[in-house]
Amino acid sequence: MKIHLTLVAMLVLVGCTQQPSPQPEAVQEVVNAVHLPATVQARERGIETVFGKCAPPAQKSLGDEPAQSPLPKGMGTYSFNEYRLKPLFGFSVDATVMSRHDYSEDREADLAPIDLALAWGKMRDDNIIKALNVTQRNRWYHWEWHGVEPLPSAEIISSSANMHMIPSDYKVLKALQSIKAGDDVRIDGWLVEARSNDGWVWRSSTSRGDTGAGGCEVIYVCAVTPVPRKPQ
User: Fold this and answer.
1) Tens of pLDDT along 173-231?
2) How many CB atoms are located within 10 Å of the residue 150 CB?
């Protein structure tokens, strides 16, 4: 990971990151008007489940960290048109949403029209989140601060991530579309590897500490649950 340091600010790019630029372009965090890709249009026409019934992994006590669990015996793949989703691990995260960004033009939007930049552990502290300028673009998550570093970079990296959301049905899609920055949510689903008939591959990260290309989680989302705000 390359870090650009000036006298007044530090810009860090994490979780599927690209190289920092001296003056990052302004980015709208939430795009309300979304031209839904073909798979999502199918959901809009009333198909209850596109890839097949999505049963969330066994419920776990999450604490401050995301829960990643082995696959149950005999679990198969999900498929829709040219895409196949191979589950890698069960995944649940109880987190604060720092930013949401919607996509419709890239290849990945065929599957994941929404990305969430999520924070857990110490990163959920309101004062820390407010001290960061968080943006998303091109499937990357970026943060910047001015003055005193609110939390060591290594802890920010291990306690936050940009995650790609593949909705399993129309209800999940609408729940994801209702999310806004500042919400506390629980996401339950499966980390997956997506493949298409033309050889295109999109594989989820399976570690919370990685950065750069491949450092984002790709989640086939079974359930989105609002979480009451914890006292701080």
Assistant:
1) 999 999 999 999 999 999 999 999 999 999 999 988 777 677 799 999 999 999 877 66
2) 18
Tokens 């969430």 sit at which residue? 116
pTM value > 0.70: yes
| Tokens (6 digits) for 168 | 């399993």
Pairing mode, strands 140-146 and 83-102: unpaired
Which of the given ranges, 75-84, 137-146, 182-191, 213-222, has the highest pLDDT on average? 182-191
